[in-house]
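Hey L., structure's done. Input below.
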Amino acid sequence: MVRVAGSDMKVTGIVSKASLVAGAPTLTVTVAESQRLLVGGQPLVSMVLGRGTPTLPDTYRAFTQAQAHADLIRPLKNAVQSIDFVKILLWMVAGLIIASVVYLTVLERTRDIAVFKATGVSNLAIGAGICLQAVILAVTSSLVGIVLAIILAPWFPMDVVISTGAMIGLPILAIAVGILAGLFGVRRTTSVSPATAFGGP
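Output:
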């Protein structure tokens, strides 16, 4: 039994993945019962689901499935915008972390880079190698993130859907972030003089 609006109702079945708004519990009742609970038993209905293109009076309005979905998700608009903003911040943090790792690696290998330059290796080739290192680091991190997301998704209190497009787009975006992060290290290599290879320890 479950108590709704002061009335005891018998539970006849439980379904999963049937919530409409961010995991909020959804109760399915008959039309008559919902009218009794919500509008005092008056013969009123706010929405009817159907198939095809109905012919409606002027006072009625038909919604497509996409429009109905947009209307249902409207209360979550601010929350979705906040999540999108946090995603952008996290990508910026990820890029800065990768840039820091690459930059520190370049600092540690200053002598090696100087040797490369002294033996005739171009700045373009050295920079390409550094960017490749950053891209590999970013893509590997994105793949680890995808695996962790798939493992942890069932444990979330709300249903989490990871689309195929997101799993494909994440490594592609990681490549762009890796290239941008690698440019920080490339900038450092351009200032390394070949003469450093012949200096003391």
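The chain has a mean pLDDT of 80. The first helix runs from residue 31 to 38.

-- N.
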